[in-house]
Amino acid sequence: MTLCLALATAALLAAEPTNLPPNHPAIPPGTEASPAMPPSTGPLPEGHPPMTGPGRAPPTAEELLKQLDSTEGLRTREKTFEIASSLGKLYYTNGRSSDAIVYFMQAEQKAVATRALFVEQRKKLGKKPVPSADEARCGFTATTPVEEMAKVAEDRAKQGDAAGAAACAKAALMPVLEVEAMHGNALYLTGDKAGALAVYERVLDVAPSEEEALFSRSAVLYETKGEDLKALQAAREGFEAFIAAHPDSSRVELAKQLSQFAQDTIKAGGREKWKKTRAEDRRIRLSQMPKEPPQAPMMAAGPMAGAGGPMAGQGSGQDGPPALTQEMVDAVQNTERTPELEAGLAKLVEEGEDDLAKGKYDEALGVYRRVVPFQPENGRAKAGMAWALVGLGKPMADRVWGVAVSSDAAAVEKLGDTLMAKGDAKGAKALWAKLLATVPDYPNKSSLQAKASQ
Q1: Read out DSSP for 39-81?
Q2: Residue 391 has pLDDT above 60, yes or no
């Protein structure tokens, strides 16, 4: 809860008379009987606690919500954009999406005319770009109210200045677009996905690269339009646009994954066909896997196996992994590869590397056993599993190491880089030395020798 939000809400609560009889004429603020101003402006009585300053903290979100919930007629009361949007954000950030929607809509209503003005003036510009507010000299500051900015845009339009009117109107709409993006999220959270899409599209009509709406619209299209190839293409294009416009966003990697999934789904002819294709690919891959553990060390543990099982040296006469049971095969084969699962597996690989760098080989091995059954082609995970077994001195270590090196030696070398970056210089050099001994004609031998001897 910020101080400005608390003050805005407090201003709303004091903005209208609450103790006048019904139909009583309004009393202008500042007159003696107006409840919008304290009846006395003199000094506080001696010993009275301060109303502001260091000893007076703003109310908490919980306190404000309790006061707002008990305020009669709050929803229907007239509000400025700033007050309505502050209330919506307060409810939204505290998990009350349905309540937030009411105030978001009231805030957006204040900008309906400004949006129409922007669309009209932008059309007059044709192919000319809309200038920035600074270029148009709108004269706005960070605290200029939305309705004041809208008035400037209207005046520019009356003067025939289409570029200036469009620029000032767009600037007035920027705080509104932030509210609309939250509105779309709130609709999604309450189950109205079609409504959420409509709101996101309204934002993008004014600002095609707005971060929240651009990502969220694409994600909802991908989630809800799995059989609509045109919508999936729009989702993919949206993810690509998001990546280009916001390369530093924390959601870039997820956007890349979802873009690829959308493309794969389009190629397959829809989500159901894509799921069947993926299931068949997994079935074929698993059916070709050798049944005896010595020949299939990298796919030996089911997804539910724990770190203390046979691969940690318990219950297996060979200190190696057990053969896959049919239940394990089915569990892997029938698990849909969602973005959440893929992201979770990637995080597990990072955890395994952290454990390796700390010499926690048992813990690392347990982590990799959860990843490799789902991603048998993941060279990074295979390298980590092999090094964990080497660190534990298991009889299976050389065989698993050989599989990792022969399938993706570059991933093994890169694991050494990761260990070095995480502070395990001794482990990194030992890994590189073992790689050199295993592959005497390694393509990058001179560089690898330099790293191993540094």
Answers
A1: S--SPPPTTPPPSSSTT-PPPPHHHHHHHHHTSTTTTTS---H
A2: yes
Q: Where are the alpha helices (DSSP H) in 126-192?
A: 146-158, 162-189
The secondary structure element, H or E, covering residue 363 is: helix 361-371
Buried b (16+ CB within 10 A) or exposed e, 193-232: bebbbebbebbbebeeebebbbbbbbbbbbeebbeebebb
pLDDT reported for residue 385:
93
Q: Say if residues 383 and 412 touch (Cβ distance below 8 Å).
A: yes
What would the pLDDT profile of 176-230 be if each residue is shown by its tens digit?
Answer: 999 999 999 999 989 999 999 999 999 999 999 999 999 999 999 998 998 999 9
As a residue count, the chain comes to 454
pLDDT digits (tens, 9 = 90+) for 321-347: 444 444 544 555 555 556 777 788 888
CB 337 within 8 A of CB 261: no
206: amino acid identity, one letter: V
Q: How far is CA 108 from CA 146, 170, 178, 380, in A?
A: 11, 14, 10, 49
pTM here is: 0.55
All residues at 6 or more sequence positions from 317 whose CB lies less than 8 Å from its CB, including other chains: none
Asked whether 363 and 355 are in contact (CB, 8 A), the reply is: yes
Question: CA 257 from chain center: how many Å?
Answer: 13
Predicted local distance difference test score (pLDDT) of residue 241: 96
Vertex 296 angle, CA 293 and 300, to 5°: 65
Q: How far apart are CA 27 and CA 24, in angstroms?
A: 9
- Side-chain half-sphere exposure of 63, counting CA atoms within 13 A: 8
Q: How far is residue 178's CA from residue 173's CA, in Å, rounded to a whole number? A: 9
